[in-house]
Write a structure and sequence with these properties.
four-stranded antiparallel beta sheet, single chain, six-stranded mixed beta sheet, alpha/beta
Length: 579
């Protein structure tokens, strides 16, 4: 993923706030109203006390105080509800945008990515409400100072003597906590990433008896996490302790000056009571620190999500494929580099429309990369890939995905039922289409043996690796428009099922072009042509029986056991007669 600091946080939060602007504005208004009521209450209390001391009862002022307190409660409750609603909406918008981008750009990141999309998104979602209430949090102490000045200028002057240390305290807290929060979130993400890896490889870890070592690896960032957590507590504790000393001193100073002004007759008892309350409001650094803490966490989280959004997603055009196209796939001068290594080197390959072409080669030859290029699951660094004469990059997203169907070595099944797993795609499929695809992939038999058949819940179906592959093949058969790409998608099939699938591939009633990567000689033997990759280049494109004369080609297949007929000769002559 990109550098989290590369994209400023507003690009993450501001777009997500568009649908919640009314709620955020209402939060800001209510927060301002709460500040106004909070500043009005001391004056009302002071007047009530003065009226009582003068023997005038002060009933109206007492009722006024009660009304102000009731207003504060109602406004505070409404503000809290709206802040929660706006935070939830913004969080949902941030997650929707991030998830869509992750899927469009095919971002990978394991547990760290999950942490960014779940925990960090929630922190970022709280930023608008925190920004909306921050002016009110700052307005409370400022209003308290102004009210002190209006009550008696000497009281405001006494308070301002301690204002610089308070401002310095807030500044130091914001700067120190920002760094520690960012480091804490980063360590948290690394632990999550390692934990997801360990859970995915739990059986391997158990078989290797490396549980303790793996637990230690997963928790290796824990000391850093703990250190940053303690650092945050120390920063907050230091700020709280310093405020606990500074705030009472300021209040005592204001009360001392107020007492002198009372003795001089320049201030009433009610005025002194109001001044004490205003001094308390003016020293309300806790609310400011709390709001700053929420902003710091939200901005740090937004930067981490910005790192996800900074990963470029492929742009799509608006072109359409010709209606009479046969599915001809052309790879022209394609070069692909991964991790500084050239995987495909100026590759040229044409897959004739309606043909079945097997791609073979040693590990690292670029077979899976070529399969990904064929349907634009990745883009070349150089060169161009065309389908029926149209560059894939110029096709619309819908046109491309309708035209190309994929089956993978380890397919992921999605949907509620097994029928849903086959039908999973942008459009609705009929029951006949689903069952026909399942029959072509050799999956219909075991599906019908299940208690609920095709309606069996996906999570309740005990499937083997080969059965999962067959469902992945069925999904490709059901959706592929004019090109089917099978990336080692028959590797877990038994010989009989592989023969059945090969028959479906060779006798596709829709006449689709089929590109399949394989390690099996028998699969290559049944294809119309074999594309032999070596060191990222096309070494040969010819029928299997022709290439079999080359010892280097035969060496690609470790043993003759891949042959359904059990002999090297049977593989060499190609399997169509065996079908």
């Amino acid at each position: 993923m990109a550098d989290p600091d590369a994209t400023p946080p507003p690009r993450v939060v501001r777009p997500a706030t568009r649908g919640s602007r009314a709620a955020v504005c209402a939060v800001a208004v209510l927060a301002g109203l709460s500040v106004g009521l909070g500043l009005l209450l001391p004056t009302a209390l002071g007047h009530a006390v003065d009226q009582v001391l003068r023997g005038r009862g002060g009933g109206r002022w007492v009722w006024g105080c009660a009304a102000v307190v009731a207003g504060q409660v109602l406004v505070g409750a409404a503000s809290d509800v709206l802040a929660a609603v706006s935070g939830a909406r913004v969080t949902a918008a941030v997650r929707r945008r991030a998830v869509r981008h992750v899927l469009a750009a095919r971002v990978t990141g394991g547990g760290d990515l999950v942490t960014r999309l779940v925990g960090n998104a929630a922190d970022a979602g709280g930023v608008p409400a925190a920004v909306a209430t921050l002016p009110a949090a700052i307005g409370t102490p400022l209003g308290g100072i102004v009210a002190l000045f209006l009550t008696d200028p000497w009281l405001a002057a006494a308070f301002l003597l301690g204002a610089p240390p308070m401002a310095l305290l807030v500044h130091r807290f914001a700067r120190a906590s920002s760094d520690s929060v960012a480091r804490y979130q980063d360590a948290q993400g690394r632990i999550a990433a390692r934990l997801v890896e360990a859970i995915g490889g739990a059986r391997t870890i158990a078989a290797a008896r490396t549980e303790e070592r793996e637990a230690a690896r997963v928790l290796r960032p824990l000391p850093e996490l703990s250190a940053q957590g303690h650092r945050m507590w120390r920063v907050q504790g230091r700020a709280t302790a310093q405020a606990a000393v500074l705030v009472p001193l300021l209040q005592i100073l204001v009360l001392a000056v107020g007492g002198l002004r009372l003795a001089q007759g320049a201030l009433t008892v009610g005025g002194l009571l109001a001044a004490s309350r205003y001094a308390l409001l003016a020293t309300g650094i806790g609310s400011v620190v709390g709001q700053l803490g929420a902003l710091v966490r939200g901005r740090a989280a937004a930067r981490r999500i910005a790192g996800v959004l900074a990963v470029p997603a492929p742009a799509h055009g608006t072109s359409r494929l010709p209606q009479d196209g046969s599915g001809t796939l052309e790879v022209r001068g394609v070069t692909v580099t991964r991790g500084g290594e050239t995987v495909l080197d100026r590759l040229d390959l044409t897959v004739p429309g309606g043909s079945c072409v097997a791609v073979v080669g040693p590990s690292g030859a670029g077979k899976s990369v070529l399969a990904a290029l064929a349907g634009r699951l990745t883009d070349p660094d150089e060169g161009i890939v065309l389908l029926d004469g149209r560059p894939l990059s110029t096709l619309s997203r819908l046109e491309l995905r309708d035209a190309v169907g994929y089956a993978f070595e380890r397919p992921v099944l999605l949907g509620d039922t097994l029928a849903d797993a086959i039908a999973f795609g942008p459009g609705e499929l009929t029951t006949e289409t689903v069952t026909g695809a399942a029959r072509a992939a050799g999956a219909d038999g075991f599906l019908r043996r299940l208690p609920d058949g095709y309606a069996t819940p996906r999570a309740a179906a005990p499937l083997s690796g080969g059965e999962v592959q067959r469902l992945g093949l069925a999904r490709a058969f059901a959706h592929g428009g004019r090109l089917l790409v099978l990336d080692d998608a028959t590797s877990s099939l038994d010989t009989v099922t592989e023969l059945h699938v090969a028959h479906s591939l060779l006798h596709d009633p829709l006449g689709r072009t089929r590109l399949l990567t394989t390690h099996r000689a028998a699969t290559a033997a049944r294809a119309d042509l074999v594309a032999w990759l070596d060191s990222g280049r096309l070494r040969a494109l010819a029928p299997h029986r022709t290439l079999w004369q080359d010892p280097a080609y035969r060496a690609l297949f470790a043993t003759p056991s891949d042959d359904p007929g059990g002999s090297v000769a049977a593989v060499a002559v190609g399997g169509e007669g065996e079908l």
